[in-house]
Amino acid sequence: MTADSLLEVRGLVAGYGAAPVLKEVDLTVPRGAITAVLGANGAGKTTLLRTLSGLLKPTAGRIVFDGTDLRGAKVEHLVRRGLAHVPQGRGVVAELTVDENLRLGGLWRGDAAGLRRDVAEAYETFPALARRRKHSGHQLSGGERQMLALARALVGRPRLLLLDEPSLGLAPRVTAQIMALLLRLREATGLTVLLVEQNVRGALSIADDGVVMSLGRVAVTASADRLRDDAALRHAYLGF
Amino acid sequence: MNTLVRNVALTVAAAVALLALTYGLTPFRNYQLATAAAYLCATAGLTILTGLSGQLSLGHGALMATGAYPVALAQNEFRDRDITGGWVLPVSLAIGVATALVAGLVVGLAAARLRGPYLAGVTLAVAVIVPALTTAFDSVFNGDQGLSVYIEPPPLSLGYSFPNERWQAWIALTGALLTMLLLANLVRSRFGRHFRAVRDDEIAARLAGINVARTQVLAFVVSAACAGLGGGLLAVLAQSVSPGAFSLTLSLFLVMAVVIGGLGRLAGAVWGALLLVLLPEASHSLTEALSLSPAAAQRLDGNLPLAIFGITLITVMLLAPGGIQGLLARVAGMVGAKRAKQHTPGR
Amino acid sequence: MDRFVFLTFDGLSRGAVYAAFALALVLIWRGARIVNFAQGAMAIATVYAAYSVTSATGSYWLGFGAALLCGLALGVVVERGVMRFVGHTSPLNAVIVALGLVLVIQAVLGMVYGNEFRPSEAPFSRTAFTVGGLAFLSRYDVFVFAAVVALMVGLGLLFTRTPVGLRLRAAAFAPEVSRLLGVNVAGMRTLAWALASAVGALAAMLVVPTGLGIHPTSMDLVFVTAFTAAVVGGLDSPLGAVAGGLAVGLVLSYVSGYAGAEMTPVAVLLLLLAVLLVRPSGLFSGVAARRV
Fold it and tell me: Which residues does chain C have within 8 Å of residue A140's beta carbon, measured at their own beta carbons?
């Protein structure tokens, strides 16, 4: 375990039924960097994130987060340790308002005053949300929901953010805004991000490192620069 | 055609065996056998409805009542008019079955489009409210006290000392065998396939051209008619009807019987009916064994079967949704698979 | 005309109780997607507990409090001890298990207390006030209204203004996402059951002194009626449950007044059938909320 890796995964095996989806995944996420997880549909990217956040129990392997083995940790406790997961589809609670969703992100801290401050800060970072604070989840557009999901995760002051396909269903302009935002956050707060994306170009434009998954395993680990520039690598693993 | 022949042959064989059995049993056991046969009509109908057609009914006790009360009224009416003969009882039972069939049609039409908790809620309402009708229409049904049912003694052709209980067993077993024959054929028929298709995937069934609503209603009507026959038989055996005999508790007992016996399997309905008769007896023996004051004993005796039924139901549902018959089927399946493996060449 | 006024107020008073009970059903439906068919049996058990406490201490209010506490406890026991383990292969599983619970609870009550009807005294007078010759509410009716209104206000505040309420709602609407945000969803589910059970206990304590009597099966018809009310209002809508309860209470009061008390169960059945055939999603259901 190197000093500057926030998350280390070794030999992770996990799945939903008889056949495992993840077949011995090894992965390292450097602290303060944006790591993109790429690969075709069915490669196991979403399953990987769900296993990391505890929604799915692995059958083998280790997950070490900032020096602590996460084995046996309950899902609801991980956010206290600084691990936030924004699932595929965003997970905005449609029946609650924007304000309630944001507060939900920080309830675990039990600090009402601190929560109010952080929610106010979220409104500063995301002025579009401030305009909609009393609106309920299903009144928001796709882009607004993505912002809400992100803002909600950040209210919990995570150290590692697991993001599952934030660009899904969003227009290119909105996607670009989100990616730019992630970059700014990384610069400003040193937030570590593990970003699962189908949108390869968008992800590689902000990522520091890339991990390409195929059929439940890690096929290639390389810096984002290499993945962008090395045509052979791109053709072989990323299809373009 | 093969199925029909096979089922008729089985029925005849069963009839012969049961006939012999009634000569070997004590009067008390014959009465129990008769009661089990009456319950079997209802459990068989219910297991088809719930297991095969996928519609849970919490109201089959009330449907038994809709068969029982007409039998009571008919028998008493025949007696009042001095009409006698061997055909009287079958006619009364037929009236009971017809009434229950109509009741089943009404409930079935209402229930056909309902699923899940809504269906359960409606049938629960039927279970709770139909007995209350006896008080609402007091003059006909005599409220809580109920009615006594006039039944003719066994025909003289059978001999002077022919035990009443054996006669009762014959009547009830005839009803039960006819019910089982009908249902066995139904299960194998096109209708049985439709029931299963709708239960498993309603949309696919609809796309395949099955009229879903009609199928659901048919299942309800058939199971109600069977329950009505069972209720009518109970009226004959107990020689009385009252709302207390057909309360929500009976409806829940029937559900328990088919769940434990194994949903959707006619053999399971047999297990269930036996359970309904034997468990109270076992619980009674238990109460006797603990020497308690008469008051305490009475409280225990009335309620222990309920407690045991309830706990059994919960335990079975939590552990094995297929019930006893399901477990047996699974064991048989495993044994069969093992044998097949041993015989597979080249392994 | 005076009869109509009297029946209207009487109906609202009964309706308030059905509203409360329907609310309990909606609470669990929203939280666990289960209709708690054991709610009536659980509620009457708490009434027996109140009866014992009142008999021992001579205080109605101690008994009342005991019923509510017992309701909370029973909700926890049932959820943690039984309902948590129900398989999700079919929605029927939870229904059948709940029915098993009904049998067990009623049996235990019968074994401990016996199956005779016990009378139940109301804490306030049940004779109606007359204003200018018009009979309308009794002291007891006012108490029932006050209790139910207090309940609704209390629950409303709990759910919309407190962190616990936010957690309860989030856990009900989006359990997986809530866990990711640190909400103890399993604990919230237990809490929802405890609350619903306490609400059911309150409703039972309010309705039993109105001539129902204490018997293991006293709440069966009330359950069916409250279920009807919940269906009328839409199982997903707490406001609908309240409106449905009041509506059903009014209908039953008119039926009882004009057609006779014995016809009320029939009216309930017909009403239920009518609603389920015409508008099964209830009168107040909006578009189903989607998770985004």
Answer: 292
